[in-house]
Amino acid sequence: MRHRSRRLLAAALAALPLLLAPPASSSATDHAGPRYREYAALGDSWSADVTPVDIQTDQAPSGCAQSAWNYPRQVAAALKVPSFKDATCGAATSGHVRAAQDVSYLSGRLDGVNKPQISRVSKRTDLVTFGFGGNDVGLARAAVGCFNLLPSMKVLPGLPAPLGGECRAGWVKRDGTDLMSQRIAQAEPKIVRAVQDVRAAAAPGATVLVVDYLAGVSADHGCYPYVQAHDGDLMWIGAKLKELDAMLRSAAKKAGAGYVDSYRGSVGHDVCQKPGTKWVEGFVPLSTDPQGLAVPLHPNRLGAAHQARSVLNALRK
User: Fold this and answer.
1) pLDDT tier, 1 (very low <50, low <70, confident <90, very high otherwise)
2) Domains and CATH numbers, the chain
3) Cα–chain-centroid distance for residue 142?
4) What is the pTM of this model?
5) pLDDT for 128 beyond 50
């Protein structure tokens, strides 16, 4: 019994450092998954996490409006990749995988031509994130068109937003046909081809991940006047966002790529939530994360951090 007690005491002392050790961090910068030698990020404004201030130009022209906190930069830092290439750019479509994008606008204050995004992919590239789709179907433009100063009053019936009309009336016909749903379905083959092109350009066996759009708008509620749109219009946008993500999941499978679900973990952080809780900004171009000017209807820094965590979690599987 005496020897057994000594063995138990020794085992307890050996385990003591583990019990006293601080808990593991769950930040986006902690990653114990596989190591990659070259990471290329392709995508649109939600991947670039576009910003009107402090635009980063080390990876793309100023017109792409890349932020310092976009999820590709966070992922690259977490993985400590030796080579990182960020092609993400505001207003990009999947067509800009192979086509150059002229981003000279706003009277020349922002400028440049973003080379075809696939030019950042080489036979050394063993990790690619692919974040397109919203501009292919015109969902961002449709959402901006739902801005409405008088959505609850309808004092001027028959007129479009922002004078009281419902924006979805221009998309959903009387017979129930939803033109945005049609666009989403029609865009799938284009997304599949673009992902296949990227896979062919990357290293054999490279990890290619299609990244979806987080739950920036809810399909279950609106919040006028906090967000200046008809509640029904806002919920319609939320429903189309879910359809878009479902299409991207299907396209990823058909193209033989992985899929990053950033939507499910972001529910409850939509534009209707208070600052500090919402991960996507509303129509007012201001944010508290970080404080200052923001691009409406785009992820803030909290949303970008969630996107980064979603990618890293997908790589751990």
Assistant:
1) very low
2) 34-145+179-316 (3.40.50.1110)
3) 18
4) 0.87
5) yes
